[in-house]
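Q: What structure does this chain adopt?
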Amino acid sequence: MRCLSRTVLAAALLFTVGGCPKPATTTTPPPATAKPVATAKATKDAPKKLTELKSKKPLPVPEDWDRMVDAVKGFAFYVPKGSESKQETEGGVDVFVAQVAKPHDIAVMCVVYKDASKSKDDLAKNAVDIITSMGDTDVKVLETEELNADYTLLTITSVDEQKVKSKTRALVATDITDNYLLFVVSPETAFDQNVDTVDAIWQSFEMFSGGASGESK
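A:
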């Protein structure tokens, strides 16, 4: 996980106003969990390293979870129990970061700020800007999925300063007054193993107000 101070600073440079989630322990699993993603079968001609990678099965989704909730900002999401987490506010931008416990290799970051003028398209651009501002290069949006009027899901790859390529699910959400960007990241080489838990994390996100449309949770 990147240094928290750098993360907050990078976010604060992009935005001017924003509520940090306050953890409340629970053993309830996320409301939604992803279905296992099929892994490709290795062929006879596949290099040994690639064969071993593709034959690895997804890690089981953890059974115990902590609910990260901010009643003032009106949102919540879950992280696996035992995750190391920190939160900080600077320049009106609230940032929560967590590192999921092994054997999973997953980092989570939630950025919250106020700006009623932002559209979902603006938030999607902000998500890319945040990744870039933390020093990542070769940032590519592989897929953009419009989930509903209030949520968009981006799948993004990037390369950090240590030349490690990561894959990110970035959920952007717009409320009446607040904007939320939830990043769930795993090294690309381990993404298929972590994908079920990655998807369970972003799918657990909820807005108490029902979002800008009033119809989202």
